[in-house]
Amino acid sequence: MEPPVEPRVRRLFGGSARTLGDLAADPFRADRDRIVGSPFFARLGGVTQVISPVGSGLLVHNRLTHSLKVAQVARAIAERLIADEDRRALLDSLGGCDPDVVEAAALAHDLGHPPFGHLGERVLDRLARQRLGLPDGFEGNAQSYRIVTSTEIRGAATTGLDLTAAVRAAMLKYPWTRLDHPDPHPRLMDPPPRGASAPPDDPESGSSKFGAYRTEIDDLRQAREPFAGRIPDWQQTVEASVMDTADDIAYAIHDVEDFYRVGVLQQGAVSAELTAWQREAGQFRAITDRALGTAARRPGAAIERLRRQLHRKDAWVADDDAFAAAVEHVRAELAEGLLAVPFDGSIEAEQYVARFSARWSTRFVEAVTVTAHPSVRSGHVLLAPAQWHEVQVLKFVHHRFVLARPDLALHQRGQARLLGTLVEALWEWLLDPEEESRLPRRLHDLVELAEAELHPRTPDRIGRARGRAIIDFVAQLTDGQAVALLDALSGRSGALWTDAFVL
């Protein structure tokens, strides 16, 4: 009988091509270095976080700066958790919590994010499924996993970044495919895990969020194998849970910070919403859902809808007293604190923003804990209820006073049209038999890779391979490259040789 495999070795390999000699070379740090050295990571500097800064001169977060800050928060959480002996024993029983693994996964979690933020993700998913016939569609998390396992080429004999099993597993915020893994699929659970449910308007399409395409299912299984018997198939690893929590924290804080700098977040509007709800909370709670829907413009109504939504979706943690305390804390710190003085670009203003961000980051990191038996809607690592509610209220401010703006909607509709036109133009180019020898080399390689991944008896195998290649190709562009490529394909650009940089 062969001796049992030591857990650390299993976390290292699980499908990786590395050898035992790698054990002495800090393999998890090597993973981090490979991710940072990837051109896909550098590309994130030109990809939208919420709004595209291209041509505007705005100093706002992009996907690169966001990833760096998520990594910073994630490492701080991991180091704090393992510093406690009792918590460390629980973490080890669940599969471990290594700060280097957490940091590497955080750096890699957005590698597959397409141009134009979450809008680009939604548009590419619709085009992939409805126009190109790809059942898996497009999902940013699954695209990140595809990059580190398939499309990022490091050498003649290596596909992907050859990351350890632990880091690949830690990237799986949603450790299931869209439709069929694991079996039974988590979208069929009652309630389903966060992200696993299907869109209400398209229940047959599978999970809204998922961590890997069907083409990477074997790799997903290998990455997760070391955790078998420790956590359910549908549950995040502890390290993925840390990364996910850090992503939530960074998103809640830094997007608010961005729109304060830009001048979009106005004290009057934010303060009116929060204060009205505090003043009339009892009245709002007595209103029916239908009546509340007709009072959409009434100050306080939107945040009352948030309170009800939290009870519907997250009854395991939603608490009215904690919600009221979170509203008050955000009102005092944000509406009556940060937003009380308009940002003027001065050193003093920047220092004020930095102190605000640091204060909230510390508050959240220190509120992170670990549990052996989490809710289906949570991971093993989670925020304390008070801070969980504060994150929800901060996110609400961002959604209500930024994402719901008509001027942003106008901008995004143009970006959506651009992506649709670009995909259509590339499809026509691929189908032109006279142009086969002049296709962009990268696009040609992606078609060959996608074709090799599909079973020979796959229906319309060539068509699906071409569709996946186009989606992979567009998803790897920066915002600026997407605009420049469409200009070139549309004949609007006269810069012949400089347009080649996107090919």
From TrEMBL:
Q: Which domain of life is it from?
A: Bacteria
| CDD domains linked to this entry | HDc
> Which residues does the UniProt record annotate as the domain HD?
63-252
Any single GO BP term: dGTP catabolic process
Q: Which UniProt keywords apply?
A: Hydrolase
Name the Gene Ontology molecular function terms of this record: dGTPase activity
In Pfam terms, one family for this protein is: HD_assoc
InterPro entries per the record? Answer: dGTPase, dGTPase-like, HD/PDEase_dom, HD_domain, PHydrolase_assoc_dom
Which residue ranges does the record annotate as region Disordered? Answer: 180-210
Q: What is this protein called?
A: dGTPase
Protein's organism: Micromonospora krabiensis
